[in-house]
Automatic annotation (TrEMBL):
Residue intervals of the FDX-ACB domain: 712-805
The organism of origin for this protein: Alkalibacterium putridalgicola
Cofactors required: Mg(2+)
Protein localization: Cytoplasm
Record note on cofactor: Binds 2 magnesium ions per tetramer.
Protein name: Phenylalanine--tRNA ligase beta subunit
B5 domain ranges (all copies): 410-485
GO biological process terms, semicolon-separated: phenylalanyl-tRNA aminoacylation
SUPFAM superfamilies (UniProt xref): Anticodon-binding domain of PheRS (SSF54991), Class II aaRS and biotin synthetases (SSF55681), Nucleic acid-binding proteins (SSF50249), PheT/TilS domain (SSF56037), Putative DNA-binding domain (SSF46955)
UniProt domain TRNA-binding: residue ranges: 40-155
Sequence similarity: Belongs to the phenylalanyl-tRNA synthetase beta subunit family. Type 1 subfamily.
Broad class of the protein's primary localization: cytoplasm
Length: 805
């Protein structure tokens, strides 16, 4: 927000404070100042000149020789290349000795042998960007009003005798995106009361708004407030100099009196407006609704926009005439032929405007204000002020009445807080009178009791809702630099990691050793992503005041964030990606506002595990590669023997035939599987495999201590067994039977063959295992191993209906 100090002086007495000092005070009270600009310090010898003659230079196709009166006893001869120069104009003249913002120093010179005693300046040469220069002055000089005083400084006519303070407005202080909002803020800083001109509308009582237009909205959540006035018999002409000056110095290009007034009111009140050519509406009905799928609208920039139901449009009852809160339509914009103006002032749902502006890349000063919120008490006041100003500048008449839809009314908010709470939070010893005085400086009314304070907050400060907001206001105005500085009191303890912290760090090192890169995702996400990949019951925990729609709910799984990271990398030609993340997920607790926080480890892999090279062929990531990583980690933390895998179709985001839940001690502690192919196609991903484990469940439990055992002195032996079973029998089930019935000397089991096909019955599979036996205290006897082995085979036949081969 670029604040004009002269404009601010219309509301306040700033004679006793310099712009730099004022900027320092604003910074100390919490609004950051990016820069302070004082153009007049570097610009001198710029005066108003009257062009007496202007004749084409002989031998040149674009230069003119002019004589200019600058009220210095004699006229100056100046060579000028502007195509719009002509006699009788009042212009800006840089006399010899002047230095322009681009570093050019003006001096007497000769152009093609013709003496030139200065320079007739364009706005660009005085530091204005092309984006704000009026169209009539784009390729030439800027012509001053005829009543500009010859020989006087030209700076006041273009606003360069002003000072400008650049404010960096945070999202919570959108009230400062208007000159009146800044006026209230500076008034509080300087302990003044701002004085704003009273707005009155002179209406033509002979006609009523109902004869001209009616307004309706389909969804009052999308459009809580919509108002419209009509101004008739308007002559659309150029804006007066004072209005052009204010707009240019705020970074807005003057267009015509009607459009300029809407922009001026937006700067003054923070309320965006839009002006329609009433006759071009070709209707007496305005209807605000969601756009239909693929509905089209040509916006003011000449671009044809293809819309969808996520966009909000203003229609003439049938077809769109504007993109609500973002940009008007080309078919109803104000032109020099316009005679009747339909003027809109409204409040639109901020999330709809933000998404539309972002999707169409149409962010503007108006959309920025709708996104951050508006002062509901100023919606009609701004409309009235703009309507009267358009009528005054265009010699028109304001039709009596306002067409309106109002689902909400501006209301004051009351916040109650105790003095003890304020002093406790700030470490101060303020008394009640001091706090009341600070609130009155802000323009807030107060009611006091023994130790409590009730503050009445007007609609213009919609950011203030709770106790913490009042404490912040007290801290700002009391002065952050006056708050006491104290050191925290705590016992000094030796710094070391707990057992669990060390295990988490070890897990991080293991995952990186397995070839995965660490990713850190934001814990806040959309409601849909927060629920994805999780079987935890209940809606995710949501913030009452989220920063945006994309950061409104706490995640219940790490996988959505990892999947976004995978998609981001693949879209940038990183085809072989493996990420892991260790972080917290948040489960809702029915009888508590606070969620249950659980530490998870998750991973996502896609592409090749081994890229093709001279020695090896390419190996793509698959289910078993990811399962192998987890099995190694389970072995490291000492739970591998208690882990089992159970196929699952409970996760809609995962492949129903390539997903398994991970169980430990008869409880589900994680999931592993392939991303559902449909979701992978939507995200332009190839086969992607995911896993997520509840680390708290595994690391918080008591583990048997690891005891070293020496290598056995006695040799072991092995047996192989092959059998045919139903293809639905799981490897994990086979292992359970073998471990239960294999005897006390069975040390390890290894699957070395799995076959389906020729010579194997349909629906069956052949599995072959190698079994290792060993007695650490003696040499095993053949009959001992044979007995255990036969018992194991019998169990396979009995429990799994296996056919031993």
């Amino acid at each position: 927000m670029r604040v004009s100090v002269k404009w601010l002086s219309e509301y306040l007495d700033l004679n006793d404070i310099s712009p730099v000092e004022l900027a320092d005070q604003i910074t100390l009270t919490g609004i950051e100042v990016d820069d302070v600009t004082l153009p007049s310090l570097t610009l001198d010898n710029l005066v108003v000149g009257e062009v007496l003659t202007a004749e084409a230079m002989e031998g040149s196709d674009h230069l003119n020789v002019t004589t200019v009166d600058v009220d210095q006893g004699e006229s100056k001869q100046i060579v000028c290349g502007a195509p719009n120069i002509k006699a009788g104009q009042k212009v800006i003249v840089a006399l010899p000795g002047a230095r322009l913002p681009n570093g050019l120093k003006i001096k007497k010179s000769k152009l093609r042998g013709v003496e030139s005693n200065g320079m007739i300046c364009s706005l660009q040469e005085l530091g204005f960007s092309d984006a704000v220069v009026p169209k009539k002055a784009e390729d030439g000089i800027y012509v001053l009003p005829y009543d500009a005083k010859t020989g006087h400084s030209a700076l006041p006519y273009i606003g360069l005798d002003d000072a400008f303070i650049e404010l960096d407005i945070t999202p919570n202080r959108a009230d400062a995106l208007s000159m009146r909002g800044v006026g209230y803020e500076v008034a509080a800083i300087l302990s003044q009361q701002p004085s704003f001109p009273e707005v009155t509308v002179s209406e033509d009582e002979s006609e009523n708004i109902d004869d001209y237009i009616s307004v309706a909205v389909d969804d009052k959540k999308d459009v809580p407030v919509y108002k419209m006035r009509v101004i008739k018999d308007v002559t659309v002409q150029e804006s007066p100099m004072w209005l052009q000056r204010k707009l240019m110095n705020a970074g807005i290009r003057p267009i015509d009196a009607v459009v300029d007034v809407t922009n001026y009111i937006m700067l003054e009140y923070g309320q965006p407006l839009h002006a329609f050519d009433y006759d071009a509406l070709d209707s007496k009905t305005i209807r605000v609704r969601r756009a239909e799928q693929d509905e089209q609208l040509v916006t003011l920039d000449g671009q044809e926009r293809r819309l969808n139901p996520g966009n909000l449009v203003i229609t003439n009852g049938e077809k769109p005439v504007a993109l609500a809160g973002v940009m008007g339509g080309e078919n109803t914009h104000v032109t020099s032929e316009t005679k009747t103006i339909a003027l809109e002032s409204a409040l639109f749902e901020s999330s709809v405007i933000r998404k539309t502006a972002q999707a169409l890349n149409l962010r503007s000063e108006s959309s920025a204000r709708f996104e951050r919120g508006l002062n509901t008490a100023a919606i009609e006041t701004a409309l009235d002020h703009a309507a009267q100003l358009i009528a005054d500048l265009g010699n028109g008449q304001v039709i009596s009445g306002v067409a309106r839809v109002e689902a909400i009314q501006p209301e004051n908010k009351k916040v109650t807080i105790t003095l003890d709470r304020i002093n406790q939070a700030l470490g101060t010893e303020l008394v009640m009178d001091e706090v009341v005085h600070l609130m009155h400086r802000l323009g807030f009314e107060t009611e006091t009791a023994t130790n409590s304070l009730t503050v009445t907050v007007p609609p213009r400060r919609w950011d203030i809702e709770i106790e913490a907001d009042i404490i912040e206001e007290v801290a700002r105005l009391h002065g952050y630099n006056r708050l006491p500085a104290t050191l925290p009191h705590s016992e000094s303890v030796p710094g070391e990691l707990s057992h669990k912290q060390q295990r988490v760090r070890d897990a991080r090192h293991f995952m990186e050793g397995a070839g995965l890169s660490q990713a850190i995702s934001y814990a806040l996400t959309t409601n849909e992503k927060a629920n994805a990949f999780s079987r935890a019951e209940g809606e995710p925990v949501k913030l009452d005041w989220p920063m945006s729609e994309e950061h409104q709910a706490l995640r219940k799984s790490l996988l959505s964030g990892l999947l976004d990271n995978i998609q981001y990398n693949v879209a940038r030609q990183n085809r072989h990606v493996g990420f892991y993340e260790i972080g917290r997920v948040f489960y809702p607790v029915s009888d508590s506002k606070l969620p249950d926080e659980v530490t998870h480890v998750a991973g996502a892999l896609t592409g090749s595990r081994i890229e093709s090279n001279w020695q090896e062929s390419e190996q793509s990531v698959d289910f078993y590669a990811v399962k192998g990583i987890l099995e190694e980690w389970f072995d490291v933390i000492g739970v591998a023997d208690e882990i089992s895998y159970e196929p699952s179709k409970a996760y809609s985001e995962l492949h129903p035939g390539r997903t398994a839940e991970i169980r430990w001690q008869d409880q589900v502690v994680g999931v592993i599987g392939q991303l559902h192919p449909q979701i992978a196609d939507e995200r332009d991903l190839k086969e992607t495999y995911l896993f997520e484990i509840d680390m708290d469940a595994l690391l918080d439990s008591e583990k048997e201590p690891l005891i070293y055992s020496s290598i056995p002195k006695y040799p072991g032996t092995s047996r192989d067994v092959a059998f045919v079973v139903d293809e639905t029998v799981l490897h994990d089930t086979v292992l359970s039977v073998m471990k239960a019935q294999g005897g006390k000397w069975l040390k390890s089991i290894r699957l070395f063959d799995l076959y389906q096909g020729e010579n194997i019955e349909q629906g069956k599979k052949s599995m072959a295992y190698s079994l290792a036996y060993q007695n650490p205290e003696a040499t095993l006897k053949e009959e001992e191993v044979t007995s255990d082995f036969e018992q194991l085979k019998a169990a396979l036949v009995e429990k799994l209906d296996a056919e031993i081969r």
